[in-house]
Amino acid sequence: FTSTELTKAWLERIKAEDSKYNSYITVTEEEALAQAKAADEAFAAGTAGPFTGLPIAHKDLFCTQGVRTSCASKMLDNFISPYDGTMVAKFKQAGAVMLGKTNMDEFAMGGSNESSYYGPARNPWDTDRVPGGSSGGSGAAVAARLAPAATGSDTGGSIRQPAALCGITGLKPTYGRVSRYGMVAFASSLDQIGPMAHTAEDCALMLNVMAGFDPMDSTSVDREVPDYTVTLNEPLTGLKIGLPKEYFTDTLDPQVAKKVRNAVAEFEKMGATVKEVSLPRTELSIPAYYIIAPAEASSNLSRFDGVRYGYRCEDPKDLEDMYKRSRGEGFGEEVKRRIMVGTYALCAGYYDAYYNKAQQIRRLIQQDFAKVLEEVDVIMAPTTPHPAFKLGEKNNDPVSMYMEDIYTLSLNLAGLPGMSVPCGLVNGLPVGLQIIGDHFAEAKLLNVAHQFQ
Ligand code: GLN
What we know:
Number of helices: 14
Radius of gyration: 21 Å
Number of strands: 11
Bound molecules: glutamine
Oligomer: single chain
Keywords: ATP-binding, Ligase, Nucleotide-binding, Protein biosynthesis, Transferase
Strand content: 5-15%
GO molecular function, one term: ATP binding
CATH class of the domain at 3-210: Alpha Beta
CATH superfamily of the domain at 3-210: Amidase signature (AS) domain
Active site: 59 (charge relay system), 134 (charge relay system), 158 (acyl-ester intermediate)
Subunit structure: Heterotrimer of A, B and C subunits.
GO biological process, one term: translation
Distance between the termini: 28 Å
């Protein structure tokens, strides 16, 4: 069948089903059908590439020309980007068809999708539960078969955690592997873009399109992009796996621990060896991250002032009133909390006590990983301490929500790549195995994940 037929089928599924999951903020029917038509023409002309005509959904913090990019915020409810971000442009050039923009936590701040201005996305396995966040819409859309694949961003787990809770595969690449140009910044030293799909193979195909140096992002790394699909089938004999003992403590649901250990046993059967390792500062990743991320966010979000774009309050009295009310009315609770924490941490007088300390911890966490990764090829761990929790369960208790990030944050602080792959069900809900590797070891991670699937 044609790409147009395929695209229509996906759009119809979204129309029929998404009221249950709220996984999309915007469905781009017109654009999708135009791109599908172009794809059909490319097939007819013999110029189709590996992504031509394949539908995909983008998280709603990636700028898409002519299409609203809301960041799930009232602040950007009316924002139509004048340009495509690099990752979006690369998929366009590769011939992919954009189905729409997916739901998320407001400005990617959260782990449950409940901070979205458009209401939470829901977990397709149990719609009373959260899909995770912040890329919860991408996770839910892929899990509910409302998109074959989607993009996400991961500042402190926002690809891996929803992938785990929705039972799909997600990859957070090494910091700098994918250009962030045209991604609305949350915490620039932690943000990374990556693929979310059913399999490692699909993630590899997507990373082939996404990865690479971009002069528009000075932190993107100028390093060759391998074909991530060619090493997927390499045997795992002799693979050295490390299990960090700090990830298997009381915080971890014993049933989740069991699924992770069963998964590790499968790798042993494939010829891998396993040993216990130690990442002693794991616990410190939460306080360090929740200083650094809000600090950077408070700076990044200062651009939303009601002047240049986005929400502006009605009838401002003067400039000051406009700033205050535009920001006060445009941002939600969690975003305001982060801006306040971040601004405080960066204040003269408190800077050394909080921000500098957090940066020192960050360095120690990096060193811990570097030491362990000299001894093992990959680290395996749970992605989350529990399966998906109920909507509303943690929403009024930010600290308990932050605690759920215990296994994902430290990778972002260290800039390392990590994947989450489904490793079974606990009480009918999916849980994820996290696979962590050294900088630029994406091909290895995808290989390991593929052998498991
Ligand atoms: N849950 C984390 C937070 O709230 C991670 C967010 C993210 O990775 N974008 O900050």
